[in-house]
Amino acid sequence: MRLFQLCALLILPWLAACSGGESNKDPVAEAKFQNEKRIGDEAVTEKQERDAEFMVTAASSSMTNLEISQIAQRKATSPDVKYLAQMIVGEHGNMQADLKSLAQKKSIVLPTNLGENQAKIVGELTALNGAGFDRKYLDLLEDIHKNSVDEFDDLSEDAYDGDIRAFAAKYLPTLKKHREAAEQAADKLPK
């Protein structure tokens, strides 16, 4: 029975990607739903459910950071902002790879694309140019990293799973560094 559930979890993302009718679902909400369903079926604890939700949120935030930072590498006018975007792309790329590997190991479904809210944020940012773009990008980074730092800080101590706890502890300093760098770059921008 356990092998069947594992096979079903591995096939589910493939089936979701192949079915045309599923394309209008929010990937973040769908990942949360799949994890809640698996957790409910396996009767695991509330802490394990929190771990899975953290993983989905971390993946979503990281994908958003990667997307907006890749755009900033092309569109930013401030050299400080371009440098920050380059740093974030490299470090969040590594974090995203570790997150995917950990999720696979723990049978946690992660979103495959940005959710509706994240896609809207990216669209709004893309529409801007010049100093307005730089300012909005840094504001988004500060907001995203503030929330991420809080979650990673909590889960670095409270995650049920030791590997998830270690992942959160490993990347917490990186997220703090990104938030501080965004704040410093924002201070240098003209008002």
Report the CATH C-level class.
Mainly Alpha
**Globular, elongated, flat, extended or rod-shaped: what is the shape?**
globular
What is the straight-line distance between the termini? 61 Å
DSSP summary: helix tally: 7
Q: Using DSSP, what is the number of strands?
A: 0
The CATH architecture category equals Up-down Bundle
The domain tally reads 1
Q: CATH superfamily, please? A: Ferritin, core subunit, four-helix bundle
H/E element string? HHHHHHH
Question: Structural class per helix/strand content?
Answer: mainly alpha
Radius of gyration: 18 Å
CATH third-tier fold name: Ferritin
Major sheet characteristics: none
Low-confidence stretches: 1-22
Overview of the molecule:
Keywords: Signal. Pfam families: DUF4142. This is DUF4142 domain-containing protein. It is a single chain. The chain is mainly α and 191 residues long. It has a single domain (25-188), classed as Ferritin, core subunit, four-helix bundle (Ferritin, Up-down Bundle), CATH 1.20.1260.10. It has seven helices and no strands. α4 (79-105) packs antiparallel against α7 and α6 (130-158) packs antiparallel against α7 (162-188). Mean pLDDT is 85; it is low at 1-22.
